[in-house]
Amino acid sequence: MFFDEGYSGRKYIMADKSYNDGDIVIFGMPMDYTVSFRPGSRFGPNRIREASIGLEEYSVYLDRHLEDLNVHDAGDMLLPFGNAGKSIEMIETYTEQLLKDGKFPVGLGGEHLVSWPVIRSMFKKYAELAVIHIDAHADLREEYEGEVLSHSTPIRKACELIGPKNVYSFGIRSGMREEFQYAKESGMHMSKFDVAEPLKKMLPELAGRPVYVTIDIDVLDPAFAPGTGTAEAGGIASKELLEAIHAIAGSEINVVGCDLVEVVPAYDPSEQTAIAASKFIREMLLGFVK
Fold it and tell me: Where does Mn(2+) bind (predicted)?
């Protein structure tokens, strides 16, 4: 059993369709077992849902309304607390089922390691898969203090799986020297500091390809998103991240799934991080699903 079948709690705004009737499935991946600084992202998915009640269902940016979509919110997965390996296995199995059923997956994290099993299941279906990664951190480590299952490793794992030249990172402003050397020598694309402009230049290169988009909320400056596990000064504003999402939405790439991770409610009593994340999810839903 992946979910609590009796769950009757908050769902993302207008995500009220049944599984069978939904074309899009939102699901929470409440895992934060490998974080190296501040835990608590397992509470992120539900807080994003709660914040969504303050949103308009209409996007003035995209001139689209959530009523135009068939969205099912499955709730949070019942992951075995503390068991990263088993949790990853469960996420991968569930994502494979979503793809088999023709659903568009929208994941809510959780630490960034939860993106890894989703990417792995995506690659099984889409041999030409590319990944757009928007984050403050490179996440290119092979391990963290001896642990290969770490929130600092998912993009390195993705590079090794689909090939570095198929991975495109934006907004990066933190990492080990070796991570930046790997990015340079491997041939992957990495844009430091900025997101929207370098992304716009790169999108034509991905036209027609299946692309998975993963966004770590800490790409934002802590002034805009203090509620995250590893806040990193010098980030972008919410407006630039919206611009990047809309650039992807207006491009010719084929987005096949997406996630947003690392919202940690405990460090943001104002809830501005969850409020921002809920808006980004709305724009991703309306923009990425054609």
Answer: 112, 135, 137, 139, 216, 218
